[in-house]
Design a protein that fits this description.
three-stranded antiparallel sheet, 5 helices, 12% strand, rod-shaped, HTH_ArsR_DNA-bd_dom, ArsR-like_HTH, HTH arsR-type domain-containing protein
Length: 118
């Protein structure tokens, strides 16, 4: 994922209305633009501007069938951002967990050796 496209995702998600709009589309896959407009207390033009931002950030997929525009959420950009940070932390914490496991096993062996010596 390019830095520019990541910026677009963060910019799109920075707005509360757009996050709520994405939540609605996630809960109602294939919904129409007119359905979204009914759910939000803003003008159709404002909804269309928010949808355009989400589409440019690749968070929203539209399927135009005749005059209707069906909306679907695209979770891939969010998943890529999530994986970027969590995979680094996962590797870090996996290494630390191995260290803790090694120390715990070493202490157990030492305590068993002391018990046998008594």
């Amino acid at each position: 994922m390019s830095p520019e496209s990541m910026d677009a995702v963060f910019q799109a998600l920075a707005n509360d209305k757009r996050r709520k709009l994405l939540d609605y589309v996630k809960e109602h896959p294939g919904c129409l633009v007119k359905d979204v407009c009914k759910e939000f207390d803003v003008t159709r033009i404002a909804v269309m501007k928010h949808l355009t931002v989400l589409e440019k950030a690749n968070l929203l997929i539209t399927d135009k069938r005749g005059r209707d525009k069906h909306l679907f959420i695209n979770v891939i950009p969010i998943q890529m951002i999530h994986s970027r940070w969590t995979s680094e932390y996962s590797a870090l914490w996996a290494g630390r967990m191995l260290d803790i496991k090694f120390l715990a096993e070493q202490k157990q062996v030492e305590s068993e050796d002391k018990r046998k010596q008594k």
